[in-house]
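Task card 7
Instruction: Convert sequence to structure tokens.
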Amino acid sequence: MLAVCTLDTDNHFFNFAYAITCGEKIEEYFWFLEMVAQCLECLKLVIMSDKHLTILPVVAQVFGKEYHSYCLRYLTKNFLKEAAKHGIRKEATKQIMKEMFYRVAYAPTAGEYNVALD
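Output:
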């Protein structure tokens, strides 16, 4: 199932479009995103996904690669998984790393991003 959601005026999720497909195939993603693009015409949007490799080239082809972002939840999960490979397994330490990661991810300016990164 492929779905497009947006936020309504009360900041609640609103299902905009969905489709039942035969699988996670390039052709299925392309068809679905083409239909979404036709419905939205010239409105700007951002496609947020996990790091699924099939969807990346399709989003770039239909909307342009600048209109794709990764879900912070998945990035955080992968970040902590990588940290565990380096011996960071205590829950308190993982929580501190998660907070540091969020400071970088939510930095609104380049200056604040660089400070958080340091």
